[in-house]
């Protein structure tokens, strides 16, 4: 049996071989195969089938789901060859459901993956989705741990915890270690983990209070954005760094003082840095390549001020969710998308001055009344592996509404953001919103609270206390479902502390948990 297929089979379609229940072990996980009869052809029927044109056999394979393709590949050499074609697995990837998102980070082109790797990632995407939305506990494949230095706790330190952020690809991790940002190389073994760069907090006595990063240029560089704050309460400093993988050096490419203090919800994507304050009316957009920046608040199509509850950058779009109620969380949840270059000022902002503009968006998508809503999670990605070169951005919004003391309602929305072919700047304060379409809505009962905001591309959210559990959007069964930790105590030791941080890497669904002196990475791929 192909090593790639072993242990990757779904419970309702075993790979072939025997009708008795067996188990296989692969990559650290144990799967039970359900009884399933092998695919068998009568000799004459097989001959007649294989005499069909190759194009027709290939077309038959494209109409099968992954378990059927894997079973068919075991029947004979001809089907094995057909089921191993790169074009077939590209077609399978194209047909995956939107929450069966493969771990294919956008900084790497599809041509960089072998056919075997595309096959493995397609199988894993379906397997993870099926586990998360099934009845059996979700299983993880690997636990990485790295030991950070225990920093001296200065009396004036502002940031007093260990906050991890695993970058797409799983090879680099940013860790805010009590105000000092560190970039770690994550090897295949815990002994290979090492810190390869850190900020110098000894010179200006400034703490990193917010950070974000992305892998760019095919993995040859990492862009890092940090907000620094010091004890003298001077205006915060934003710095953008570029870490070059070939030279293992890091340089500052942009530095600017922020004229007002804002809560630090930070994101860097492409040329833009986004910063906004929860429950506020404004956000800040910076083009770090030119220094142009702008404070922006919004009004919806009814000319009502829009209160921001969440925002993110994805490809060439800024997606914002919020409401227009008099009080936070008591209006109508709305979402809109615009292109960030429409918001950046044409002139550089001077220190001490504020460039501010109010923008009226022409279109918002109303989702639901937000009264008694406890939390909100939002995530977006563009499925670049689709055959459609201009595939829409997939947007997932999850809102939790309190029903009573012990029950919540988890409502999931799938939207698509369509970006225009042409990129035209608008001169007026009224700008075109990108087109939004609600594609799917789901509702489920929940008996627990997830970690707010930590939503993966596969529409999964997690909770850590009192136990690890997984919330799956677009699933009708009661949430959450358990995660099988196989008796590992490392993460339990972290989450039993009162001061820990958690994040999720959207592409791989990997959970990162940080506490003083230690970071754990729970992987599912």
Morphology = globular
Uncertain stretches of 5 or more adjacent residues: 1-44, 346-352, 422-428
Question: What is the structural class?
Answer: mainly beta
What's the helical proportion of residues?
10-25%
Strand content: 35-45%
Distance between the termini: 20 Å
Rg, nearest Å: 24 Å
* Overall pLDDT: 81
User: Tally of extended strands?
Assistant: 32
Number of helices: 7
Order of strands, widest sheet: 13-14-15-16-20-25
The biggest sheet, with number of strands, parallel, antiparallel or mixed sense and barrel status, is: 6 strands, mixed
Word description of this protein:
With 525 residues, the protein is mainly beta. It has a domain at 23-137. It is 12% helix and 39% strand. It is built from seven helices and 32 strands. The protein has a six-stranded mixed sheet, with no helix packed on it. Strand 13 (265-269) and strand 14 (272-276) form a beta hairpin. The protein is globular. It comes from Schizopora paradoxa.
């Amino acid at each position: 049996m192909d090593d790639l297929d072993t242990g990757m089979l779904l419970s309702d379609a075993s790979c072939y071989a025997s009708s008795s229940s067996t188990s296989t072990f692969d990559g650290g996980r144990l799967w039970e195969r359900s009884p399933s009869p092998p695919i068998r052809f009568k000799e004459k029927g097989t001959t007649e089938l294989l005499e069909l044109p190759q194009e027709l056999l290939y077309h038959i394979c494209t109409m099968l789901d992954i378990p059927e393709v894997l079973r068919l590949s075991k029947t004979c050499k001809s089907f094995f060859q057909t089921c191993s074609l790169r074009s077939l697995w590209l077609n399978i990837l194209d047909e995956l459901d939107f929450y069966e998102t493969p771990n294919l980070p956008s900084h790497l082109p599809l041509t960089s993956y072998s056919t075997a790797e595309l096959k493995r990632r397609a199988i894993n995407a379906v397997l993870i989705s099926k586990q998360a939305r099934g009845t059996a506990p979700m299983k993880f494949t690997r636990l990485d741990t790295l030991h950070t230095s225990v920093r001296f706790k200065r009396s004036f330190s502002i940031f007093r915890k260990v906050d991890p952020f695993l970058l797409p690809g799983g090879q680099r991790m940013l860790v805010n270690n009590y105000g000092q940002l560190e970039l770690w190389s994550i090897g295949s073994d815990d002994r290979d983990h090492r810190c390869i760069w850190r900020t110098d907090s000894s010179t200006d006595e400034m703490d990193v209070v917010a950070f974000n990063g992305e892998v760019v240029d095919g993995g040859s560089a990492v862009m890092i954005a940090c907000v620094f704050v010091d004890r003298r309460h001077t205006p915060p400093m934003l710095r953008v760094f570029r870490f070059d993988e070939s030279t293992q050096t890091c340089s500052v490419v942009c530095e600017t003082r922020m004229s007002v203090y804002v809560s630090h919800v930070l994101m860097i994507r492409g040329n833009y840095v986004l910063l906004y304050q929860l429950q506020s009316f404004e956000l800040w957009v910076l083009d770090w390549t030119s220094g142009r920046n702008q404070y922006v608040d919004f009004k919806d199509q009814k000319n009502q001020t829009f209160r921001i509850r969440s925002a993110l950058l994805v490809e060439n779009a800024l997606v914002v969710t919020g409401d227009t109620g008099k009080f936070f969380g008591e209006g109508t949840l709305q979402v809109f998308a615009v292109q960030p270059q429409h918001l950046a000022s044409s002139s550089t902002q001077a220190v001490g001055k504020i460039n501010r503009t109010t923008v009226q968006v022409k279109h918002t998508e109303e989702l639901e009344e937000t009264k008694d809503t406890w939390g909100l999670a939002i995530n977006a990605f563009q499925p670049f592996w689709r055959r459609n070169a201009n595939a829409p951005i997939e947007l997932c919004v999850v809102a939790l509404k309190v029903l009573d003391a012990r029950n919540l309602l988890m409502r999931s929305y799938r939207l698509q953001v369509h970006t225009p072919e042409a990129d035209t700047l608008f001169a007026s304060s009224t700008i075109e919103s990108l087109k939004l379409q609600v594609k799917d809505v789901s509702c489920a009962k929940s008996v627990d609270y997830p970690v707010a905001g930590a939503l993966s591309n596969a529409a999964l959210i997690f909770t850590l206390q009192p136990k690890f559990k997984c919330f799956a959007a677009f699933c009708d069964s009661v949430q959450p479902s358990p995660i099988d930790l196989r008796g590992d105590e490392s993460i339990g030791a972290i989450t039993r502390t009162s001061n820990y941080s958690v994040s999720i890497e959207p592409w791989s669904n990997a959970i990162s948990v940080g506490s003083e002196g230690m970071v754990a990475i729970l992987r599912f791929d």
